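Hey,

The postdoc asked me to send both predictions to you directly instead of through the lab channel. I've kept everything plain text so nothing gets mangled by the mail client. Protein one:
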Amino acid sequence: MKIKYILICAITVLLSCKTNKKEAKTEENPKEQVIEVTENNPVIRHVRTADPSAHIWKDGKVWMYTSGDAEDAVNYNTMDGYRAFSSTDMVNWTDHGQILHSKDIPWGVPGWMWAPTAIYKNNKYYLLYPHSVKGNKDDMRCGVAVSDVPEGPFKYVGWIKGVEGQWLDPCVFEDDDGKTYLYWGVREPKMALLKDNLLELAETPRSIAYGAKNFFEASYMHKYNGKYYYSYNAGLGGFYAMGDSPYGPFEYKGAINPKQRQDHHSIVEYKGQHYFFYHWQGWNGGSKFRRNTCIEYLYYNEDGTIQEIYATKEGVQKIK
């Protein structure tokens, strides 16, 4: 009987300890609350958009200029016309419609209007873009169009001699001293200083030394804390290098957006936060020919390097 009593007491104590531990665990880890996550990517859903060129103009809004993919596209030849969008909260975007179409250009074929870039200079808004003369990727010119207002429409004013060839993917960048540079190229990145009229090169084009050999397309330049960031698409995601001059040489730093194969990006700072614009094919029947503009947060490390970005459905939250 004594042994039986001791055993009963021991079991009671063990059960008591188990219960206490369970209660303690419950107190330390209260029941998880299910938080509804809003999927804000892609940010444009009523039309297919790609190659977003994002900017903060003097009106305090975020503006982006995009190329357009046809809903039934099976190649890039049918891309025809650029659109302008604006926002004050990064989630709700106003579509200002088509701002330039191949029919507005006195040379070239229908379609073949690929990734644009934009700049505000000389009290006007400029759109620089690649367009094919005869309908193949090796005869692109860099056209220039201008508008008095950011929403366009833009009027064709010419094309830049000395910037021809494959699909170009131009990026225009104005430095703090007012000098303006153009970056372009496929497989071999090039750049040159532009004259202030943005219609002529001010020097002979030069190749860009970026510390690697994986460049494919989509040159992009931005500046942060006195450093120049040359970034691009390697065909398997976005990569970048840093330098002390818009000419380089640049020190290769690695990936920005390594998992997003079609990374044609632009970067802006708006209301104290940095944002990364890119296009994504994985939504609503998308494909590499039917793409959609998305946005993610971008963060710098203390040494100025960029933290890797991964495409998400959540995207960015509305600015209040």
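Protein two:
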Amino acid sequence: MLRGLFTAASGMYASQRKTEMLTNNMANAQTPGYKADHSHVRAFPEMLIERFNAGKSRTSQVGTLHTGVYVQEVTPRFIQGDTIQTERSTDLALLDRADGTAFFSVEQNGQVRYTRNGKFTVDPSGVLTTENGWPVLDVNGNQIRVASDEFEVDETGRVTENGEQVALLGIVLTDNPENLAKDGDGLFRTEDDAQLPFAQNTDFTVSQGFVEKSNVDITRSMTDMITAYRTFEANQKVVQAYDRSLDKAVNEVGRVNG
């Protein structure tokens, strides 16, 4: 009986984690460059149940017993989001043109991180930064400095002011973006903090005055959330049924009459 209780409880916990993930996706539906997470739910190994026959040395198989499920991992989906025009010179959008996903390089506390959120700004010292203040890097790993926000960026990532090139955006490309881990503030990192290779001009297109929207599908997220809630509710009822059975076993079946 207790095994069934644990199985239902594991289903509740898995549904709760999925609901939290979907809630976070919906909360970031308007965040530029945000990549929606999706969960991988796996089942624990099944157990083979056997019955000992009275007076016999052999056992007979009853069948298998499921031992519950768990969320193995949560990974982002790197599907290209739609772009929206903002007409701000500091806003940049990446459009993938090759097999793989391109990212802007930024510096976070001395470490190189990657982002699809091209909603940039220029700080008081003239450094091009993300909304959270992380400097955007060029192909040499240096911070990009501009005189004002009136600079121009062509489709290859070349930054110019008054007709002169001041920097080339450090845009990288990976064929396996699923191996990247989220690092907060819309940033990603490699598992071993190794730097990704720089992309070729034919791998991407930069659009100035545009930003990439979140790729969260609100309708699908709402449907998945309702399903996760119903699954949680069904497992909760199973736990309540086990609780009533255990209560009866302890307080009624196990009662000793004086």
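Summary for protein two, as requested: The chain is about 25% helix and 30% strand.

Thanks,
C.
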